[in-house]
Amino acid sequence: MGFLSFALFMLLLLCVLEFVSAQPKTEPLEVDAMNKIIDHWNLRRKVNLNIDPCIQNASWAPETANPRIACDCSATVCHITHLKIYALDIYGEIPQELFLLTELMDLNLDQNVLNGSIPPAIGQLSKMQYLGLGINNLTGPVPAELGNLTKMISLSFSSNNFKGTLPPELGNLTSLQQLYIDSSGLTGPIPQELSNLKSLQTLWASDNGFTGKIPDFLGTFTQLKVLRLEGTNLEGPIPSSFGSLTKLEDLRIGDVGGSDTSLDFLENLTSLSILSLRNCRISGQIPEHLTTLPNLKILDLSFNKLTGPIPASFRNSASLQYLYLGSNNLNGDLPTDIIGSALIALDVSFNPLTGNIPTYRKDISVNVVGTSINDVNLDNEKASQMLHCLQGNNTNCRTKNPSTSFSVNCGGVEKVSADGIKYDDDSEMMGAASLYTSTNNQWAVSSYGIFISNPSGPRYIAQTDSQITNTLDSELYKTARVSPNSLRYYGLGLENGVYRIELHFAEIQMDDDSTPSWKGLARRLFDVYIQGERVIEDFNILNEAGGSKKALIKTFEANVTNTVIDIHLFWAGKGTCCIPLQSTYGPLVSAIHVSQVSEFKVSSSESDRKRVGRIAGIVIGCVAVFVVIGSVVYLWRAKKEPAHMRVHNESPRKD
Ligand SMILES: *[C@@H]1O[C@H](CO)[C@@H](O)[C@H](O)[C@H]1NC(C)=O
Ligand SMILES: *[C@@H]1O[C@H](CO)[C@@H](O)[C@H](O)[C@H]1NC(C)=O
Ligand SMILES: *[C@@H]1O[C@H](CO)[C@@H](O)[C@H](O)[C@H]1NC(C)=O
Ligand SMILES: *[C@@H]1O[C@H](CO)[C@@H](O)[C@H](O)[C@H]1NC(C)=O
Ligand SMILES: *[C@@H]1O[C@H](CO)[C@@H](O)[C@H](O)[C@H]1NC(C)=O
Ligand SMILES: *[C@@H]1O[C@H](CO)[C@@H](O)[C@H](O)[C@H]1NC(C)=O
Ligand SMILES: *[C@@H]1O[C@H](CO)[C@@H](O)[C@H](O)[C@H]1NC(C)=O
Ligand SMILES: *[C@@H]1O[C@H](CO)[C@@H](O)[C@H](O)[C@H]1NC(C)=O
């Protein structure tokens, strides 16, 4: 009791001292609101707000403070202008008291676990310039009242679970320079009113259910430097108006259906450093001017319909590091000299290219799988020959001592499972365009892509020390291969017949711990193709397994008619990009077990050609066509299993 009254006395003394100082007073309504907010989010331990929040030199005022409260005291009374509560896992709803802080110009609530909806009262904060609500668990509609905040310079509501469409009122935010709305949950058309956002420099809009055509008006945002538009339901063509976006440095469009686009619009986009137009129905030839972009570092044109030769003038680029041209219709010989001085990785896989592989610098990774190029450099000549069976025009692959099964511990060392199956070592470090063939020549793996935003961050192997549940083979799941774009396993030298394919998964990069955290808001989505047929779309390991670090086995059946099997894990632009770390996305697989179920007689070489042709060519067509199909059919298809493929959803073995 004595201590308490002493403490109270000291507090009073402090307050009195406060009053006598020259410090201007803070608007009492705001002080009261601020205290209620601090209590609402249980932050009093982190910010000991027992005095005026706008006191000079307060410990919570510097820009680096978190939570941060900062004020404007230029008038006779102070107002709270800045509030930051960043990545502190505050949870619960946005309290009404927040909207009493009407002078707020910078509100950063990014990376928390806020739920409920954004109250329409947000429209009262009309001084707002920087509003961050990204990476939270918010639901409901995005309120039209946001359009009232016309001073806004930067707005983020990425990575939430909103419903509905983009409100047209956002078109009133004509000062907006940065808009982050990726993975927001929104669907439907992009409203025409957004054409007023002429000051935009950065637009992240990937991984949403946006429909309709890619808006023409995006091509009038001449200040744009960064545009991300991957994994939506938008349709091509890429408007020719994009030819005016001469300040673009980073353009990523992907997974677009609709009509074809040529690369002509790129003629004047000379600021580009990253250009990724994967899976966009790009047709025509690769124009020479693309090889002369002075700052281009990453060029990804894979999974398109490009024809003609690969321009040799790529060798003149002093900036190009990663060149991805896989899964197109490029033909002719691979130029003997296309390697520029900065090049690190070249992928030309699955193109009808011919000739011999030129001798390149040793430090370059080159992937020519699925072409007719003679890869004399490949260490493993036997595997090289067997990989030729993946080529479109190779009709009669025969193998001397065919095998009938293979097993891989993806990303890990050799392991024997509880039921006695030996899973081969697959711990080879792979790079940005790699092919690795197993020492026993039974399988190969190729991966292409770089984790663009964090090239030095997540590698191509994921690892955990945690136990994996729902399995007797925890060890098998503690490593996995991951890829930013395309991860492909090939079974080689197999006896033809019907095979059973077991794919083992466990989510080990994304966490869903029991304590609510923004780190638990990640979504990984990818597609799986076997022998060129899509067998899973928008696969979410964590959801299907019922949590992270839980084993899940998916089983499929497929025919081997040309001694090879092709298991392709493909990122179609969906899922969150950056939770818990930048560049955490893309396909992940823990182990693979393939074994023959029965033999069959192949009737004629005619059927051989068809099947193999599909391996090489169908992926592009399949993906693109699917995007065109309306969302009703989409849902129906997603629920229904493909008729031609038996899919067993085997429940994982129990401990
Ligand atoms: C606040 O800090 C500045 C310099 O850091 C100092 O000059 C000033 O006296 C401080 N004011 C108070 C009230 O402590
Ligand atoms: C928000 O989360 C809290 C628990 O953290 C829960 O009690 C509340 O019902 C949730 N609100 C909504 C709208 O989901
Ligand atoms: C919009 O802002 C004005 C002040 O600029 C305010 O008076 C009005 O209430 C706000 N409207 C909404 C819907 O919040
Ligand atoms: C905001 O946008 C809506 C719809 O685009 C429009 O009707 C309204 O007049 C605009 N409001 C202001 C204050 O400009
Ligand atoms: C590129 O700029 C030139 C010169 O201004 C112009 O004639 C041409 O049409 C532009 N190309 C594209 C694709 O916009
Ligand atoms: C098939 O591959 C060979 C090289 O193995 C090549 O010479 C030939 O042009 C290819 N044929 C077709 C139709 O692509
Ligand atoms: C997000 O909200 C949903 C309910 O809307 C809840 O099931 C989920 O656990 C929440 N996520 C986190 C990380 O709290
Ligand atoms: C395998 O081939 C048989 C006929 O030989 C066919 O009936 C079956 O549908 C094929 N299975 C798959 C998965 O393509």
UniProtKB/TrEMBL annotation:
MF terms per GO, please?
Answer: ATP binding; protein serine/threonine kinase activity; signaling receptor activity
Q: Tell me which EC number(s) this protein carries.
A: 2.7.11.1
Task: Please give the Pfam families that the UniProt record associates with this protein.
Answer: LRR_1, LRR_8, Malectin
* A GO CC term assigned to this protein in UniProt: plasma membrane
Q: Where in the cell is it found?
A: Membrane
Q: Which UniProt keywords apply?
A: ATP-binding, Glycoprotein, Leucine-rich repeat, Membrane, Nucleotide-binding, Phosphoprotein, Receptor, Repeat, Signal, Transferase, Transmembrane, Transmembrane helix
Question: For this protein, what reaction is catalysed?
Answer: L-seryl-[protein] + ATP = O-phospho-L-seryl-[protein] + ADP + H(+); L-threonyl-[protein] + ATP = O-phospho-L-threonyl-[protein] + ADP + H(+)
Q: Which residues cross the membrane?
A: 615-636
Membrane topology, record value: Single-pass type I membrane protein
Question: Secretion signal: which residues?
Answer: 1-22
Source organism, top-level taxon: Eukaryota
Where does the UniProt entry say this protein principally localizes?
A: membrane
Domain Malectin: start-end pairs: 405-592
- This chain belongs to the protein called non-specific serine/threonine protein kinase
